[in-house]
Specification:
5-stranded mixed β-sheet; 21% strand
Length: 150
């Protein structure tokens, strides 16, 4: 789910606070990525499920099971999640850890990774907040003929 925080659970000790932010580089208009302790730019090494336009995934986002499956089946996705977990585990628990995931439009790869990471961290008793900055914006489709986006 987007923009949610893990509710307090009776009898469980919270290990630490983690904020996960997703965004699309194409929506930043040349501005900086959101401030975070670590930012994963997955545009170059994770295949975009929206790139195959006849699959029905273009209008979905990373909160949809099929998009998440496609993203997680992409080479490099499991390793990225492992790296995220290692980073959080090494982060001082008395400080809020902020992780950002960026992809082209902020709808598919970044959101899928954030949702899976949030689920994993919650099972480890972290209090997790997820903010999807651009998932609600119109999709960005690359026009390979002109080299631009529309």
């Amino acid at each position: 789910m987007s923009d949610n925080t893990t509710p307090a659970q009776t009898g469980l000790t919270v290990v630490g606070d983690v904020e996960i932010i997703t965004f699309g580089y194409l929506h930043l208009d040349g501005g900086p990525a959101p401030e975070a302790d670590v930012t994963y730019d997955v545009r170059r090494y994770l295949s975009d499920p929206a790139a195959v336009r006849n699959t029905g995934l273009l209008d979905c986002d990373g909160r949809d099971d099929e998009v998440r499956r496609v993203v997680l089946d992409t080479w490099g996705a499991p390793e990225t999640l492992d790296t995220v977990m290692d980073f959080v585990l090494a982060f001082p628990s008395e400080h809020r850890c902020v992780i950002a995931f960026g992809c082209a439009g902020g709808r598919h790869r970044s959101v899928a990774l954030a949702e899976v990471a949030a689920e994993d961290l919650r099972t480890m008793h972290y209090r997790v907040t997820v903010r999807h900055l651009h998932v609600h914006l119109p999709r960005v489709i690359s026009d390979s003929a002109s080299g631009g986006a529309r």
